[in-house]
Automatic annotation (TrEMBL):
Transmembrane regions: none
GO biological process: negative regulation of DNA-templated transcription
Source organism of this protein record: Cereibacter changlensis JA139
Protein's UniProt name: TetR family transcriptional regulator
GO molecular function: DNA-binding transcription factor activity; transcription cis-regulatory region binding
Keywords: DNA-binding
Length: 203
């Protein structure tokens, strides 16, 4: 069945709800967020919000579905035909840029995982797992060719996630520790992480 096309104001309200929900969920997590909070931030009444989304979970799932595409794109772009270190460093940079540009989305994803991924388990065990296995095979191929050092490829990907997403998920801690000496941590973080992974993978 073809869904009727939304009017401009319906599209605007839907986007306002998702933007408000992103703000509320990233601050309070799924359990701590309420529809009343989301409606207030969106500037809509709760009944109006429920016209667009039938539940808090429906909003959350919509946000997470869009986020998964954004989050996986940098890994999709790792080119098996490219120069290995250049491709891996580009992946590190793109993941760090995601943390810089989408900190709320990163915290939304982290909160979902910490709760046991009740709304994302299928995507994690399906699309995400398959992509990681595909790129791990590429990394193993480069290692077998002697083009990068041999390390566990999946744990290498995990470590890239951990060391880049930290800057979004622990933003308050990062800025509190660095203080005024480094108000923008991302340039130095990028240099540090590229040096770290380049030395780890050098042959």
């Amino acid at each position: 069945m073809i869904q009727p096309r939304r009017t401009r104001i319906q599209q605007k309200n839907s986007e306002a709800i998702l933007e408000a929900a992103l703000e509320v969920f990233s601050q309070h997590g799924f359990r701590g967020a309420t529809l009343d909070q989301i409606a207030e931030v969106a500037g809509l009444s709760k009944p109006n919000l429920l016209y667009y989304f039938p539940s808090k979970e429906a909003i959350h799932v919509t946000l997470l579905s869009g986020l998964m595409h954004t989050w996986l794109d940098p890994l999709h772009r790792m080119d098996p035909e490219g120069e290995p270190l250049r491709e891996i460093m580009a992946y590190v940079r793109r993941k760090l840029e995601l943390s810089r540009d989408f900190p709320r989305e990163s915290r939304l994803f982290a909160n979902e995982i910490l709760q046991g991924a009740p709304r994302m388990r299928e995507a994690i065990e399906g699309e995400l797992k398959a992509l990681v296995e595909e790129k791990a095979a590429v990394l193993r191929f480069w290692m077998d060719q002697g083009r990068i050092a041999r390390v566990h490829p999946v744990h290498l990907i995990f470590s890239i996630w951990a060391l880049t997403q930290h800057y979004a998920d622990f933003d308050v801690q990062v800025h509190a520790v660095l203080g005024e000496t480094e108000p923008d941590p991302y340039p130095e973080a990028g240099l540090y992480l590229e040096t770290l992974f380049a030395r780890l993978l050098a042959v």
